Amino acid sequence: MPCSCKQKKTPSDITTDRYITFDGIDCDGNARILMSYIHKHIDDPQKTNKFWDYFRKKAEGGNGPKPDDLFLIHSNLNQIRELFELYEDSEALALLDVVEIECC
Q: Is 80 exposed, middle or buried (0-12, 13-18, 19+ CB in 10 A)?
């Protein structure tokens, strides 16, 4: 029997993709804004640590190819959420929720 990916599908076999559309969502723009919120905290010497030094270096492309902002955010969602919660940055947390739901 051939692989299911090579079998002809009928309309009843097709399921709805959970990603309906990203049309009209500015994921890259929101990620750029979110990165500015992150830097507002981690660029303050009183708020940074070795992880955020590494994150900053990675964001600048210092540890290999420069990742796009959305990928970097997606890869570090929990640490970013913790940072915003620690400094009670409700505006940044709200945008992080939007980016996580709409773009990640």
A: buried
